[in-house]
Amino acid sequence: MRAAGIALVIIIALALQTSLARFLTPGGGLVDLVFVAIVYIALSSGPTAGMMAGAIAGLSQDALAASGTLNVVVGAGSVSTQSIIGIGSLAKTVVGFFAGIVGSQFIVARPLPRALVFFTATVAHAIIFVGLYRVIDRGYTQATAGTILSQAGANALVGVLVFQIADFLPNFVDRRRSMGGRMRINRRLD
Amino acid sequence: MPVTDFRQRTAVLFVAVVLGHIILISAQVNSRSGVPLLEVVTFGAFAEVQRGAAGLTSGVRDAWNGYGDLRGVRAENEALRRQLGELQLQFQQERARAERARQLENLLGFRQELAVETIAAGVIGASASLDFRGITIDRGTNTGVTANMAVVAPTGLVGRIVTPTAHVSKVQLLIDQNAAAGALVERSRAQGIVVGTNLELLRMDFVAVTADVKAGDVIVTSGVDGIYPKGFIIGKVEQVDNGNGNHKNIRVRPSVEFNRLEEVLVVKPTPAQAAQAKERQ
Predict the structure, then answer these.
(1) Interface pTM (ipTM) of the complex?
(2) In Å, how far is B104's CA from the nearest CA of chain A?
(3) Last residue of a domain, one of B66, B88, B121
(4) Is the N or C terminus of chain B more exposed, i.e. has fewer CB atoms within 10 Å?
């Protein structure tokens, strides 16, 4: 996949995530289409592309979702929060890189191995993300195993679906072309 | 693979270095509203794409929904829904007024505090990342929206404006991990801070173990944070225990269904709040 193609996939995923994703799942906030796009790019184009896709898409997501700083003070104590640009992108860069290595070292061409990669990558991303927030001790990041696993399941499902569609599209175009060609030959023969 | 080609790699590395510099600069430079420059520029640029995408999706949805529908009925329904939302907001204000009147507050000062002006806005997008909870609304600085204005729904508090652009604004939801609001228990007036957790329940911190808090108690904004006006409903206490330290362990179920938000109201700050915000700057 060329750099322009990678950028296009990320932009489409971002646009879909912000406009359509909340309508796709009943509870909303379950499928991360940008993350699916990163793993898709990593599996189909290798570790460098996966890493760069993770960095660029992650930074875009972080910047778009960031909320600055907030200080609330009451008599008994205070809460100070800050959204940090770079933590999500770092997690996605690492996951994109390793997903790319998996894609280039192993045969990941069937739905089940692909689903496994998407599932594991989502869990790894959550562990890195929450771990980094815990290390720098900012915000109130909490994640339950249930939430992470359901997100991983949803991402795996959508990821496999995206691959199936991507695999089907070129075949579909080729079939249409060859069918058109055959019809033209038949007409000439007639 | 073209990306692994040497020249391509140099170009990619260049982009990475440039991005690194932008982040570094953004970490040090804040815009006039206090929001990092990178957030403002990225959000401003992408907001237009989001607006276009939202317009397209809503157009397709409207076309689909409108098929066979009576236009007049739909328009009337929408107007009634807006009216209902405004009436419910008024009801919340009245409720807060009654509660405070019971405590013999100064009626005149109280009225000035509660006479809030609002701007109606539609939700056009969600957060770009699942790790942060936010929405995008179709009102920006052109209609008087500024950073740190409170956003409410008929059922309760939604969040605050974090990044306004000319036509749209980013709203940080109360359930976001970086969100917080000054709050109090309506019944016992015990004060604390409600913080988001990215999960469905909020947490209320800094409430003394001696405070009178029970499951089912209504939590409202206390107004001490200078962002959220006093008296708006946040939610109800779902779990409460004495924890291990000096403070109670309280979980609050928000009164707003954040996944179903379609229309919200942006609350313009009262003169007292505006002065407070100026002081803080």
Answers:
(1) 0.71
(2) 23
(3) B66
(4) C
Whether B278 is in a domain gets the answer no
Say if residue A47's pLDDT is above 60.
Answer: yes
Same domain membership, residue B192 and residue B82: yes
Total domains, chain B: 2
pLDDT higher than threshold 90 for residue B238: yes
Contact B198 A63 (CB under 8 A): no
Mean pLDDT, chain B, as a whole number? 79
Instruction: Report the predicted TM-score, pTM, of the whole model to 2 decimal places.
Output: 0.70
Q: Is residue B180 one of the residues assigned to a domain? A: yes
Our CA-based measurement puts residue B42 at a distance from the nearest CA of chain A, in whole angstroms, of 6
pLDDT, one tens digit per residue, over B204-229 is 988 988 889 999 999 999 888 888 88
Which residues of chain B are within 8 Å of residue A72 when distances are taken between CB atoms?
Answer: 180-182, 193, 224-225
Range(s) of the domain holding residue B268? 75-273
Q: Which residues of A touch B197 (CB under 8 A)?
A: 140, 142
**C-beta pairs of A121-124 under 8 Å, 24+ apart in sequence:** A121/A35, A121/A39, A121/A95, A121/A155, A122/A32, A122/A35, A122/A148, A122/A151, A122/A152, A122/A155, A122/A156, A123/A148, A123/A149, A123/A152, A124/A94, A124/A95, A124/A98
Write down which residue in B66, B101, B121 finishes a domain. Answer: B66
Q: Give A61-101 pLDDT, tens digit per residue.
A: 888 887 777 777 777 677 777 777 778 888 898 899 889 98
Helix (H) or strand (E) holding A10: helix A3-19
CB contact under 8 A, A55 and B182: no
- Domain A3-66+78-161, CATH number (from 3.40.50.720, 3.30.1240.10, 1.20.950.20, 1.10.1760.20): 1.10.1760.20
